[in-house]
Amino acid sequence: MNTLTGQQWEILTKYRFHASTPALQGEGATSFLDGGKMKAYLSYQCSQIGTDDLKVAASLFMKRYAFVAAIGLMTMTYWNKKLNLNPENLIMVDGDRNGLWMPQFHLKDASVTEFTSLEEKNAFIQSIFRDHLDQVIQSLKNATKLSNLILWENIAVYVFWVFENEDFLLNEGMRSDRDDQFRMLLSDENSQWFGSYHSNPLARYYSRKVNIEGMAEKMRVRKTCCFSYRLENGEQYRCKTCPQTCLMKKT
Length: 251
What we know:
Blueprint: H1 6-13, E1 27-28, H2 35-49, H3 54-65, H4 67-79, E2 81-83, E3 90-93, E4 96-97, E5 100-101, E6 104-107, E7 112-114, H5 118-144, H6 148-163, H7 172-186, H8 243-249
Antiparallel strand pairs: 1-3, 2-7, 3-6, 4-5
């Protein structure tokens, strides 16, 4: 059985991986596949998330839960390793950072295997999105009536972050393979990887980065608002790429 190095496991903690056995506050991810259980969970967690509005809670939940995709895609893309991210194997553990609700993810079975083909990678991507995250999105929609456009963009921003990361590239061959995989991920031909969609639900959010007043680097402005600014004391948490402010500042 393959494994990751100690350094690689440590890197994954920055992607919200929780290495130790979780305490009782952990929630099994299968609970998030049922609309009724999801609504009960969000209602219970609202005060910790920092809102009394279920739609705001749903959006923030998806922003945090999107790291399931980030963990899986990062490990696949840069290390050619596969983690078991099925809901039955996943526990979300409560956490806090700088006053924000920031949960982490624990794997009951943290064994690792190596990818041996592109087809295996494509099947893994489908298992993350169609068989897992899309089911969570449908559950959130049923529980709160929040638009899936917001929910998918909350995932997309972290997917783009993984594939635009230059920190883990070892050579130009790795860059080429990564970029090829990214193009496939955004292709409408592969919309079935994500669920019952006629077009790719990630691709609509992939736009060119632009200059924003007050920002040193070009930014990709969001198309939807994630409602972070509606948290308690939320203006300080407003995204740098918030469409409500960036579109007015675009230069």
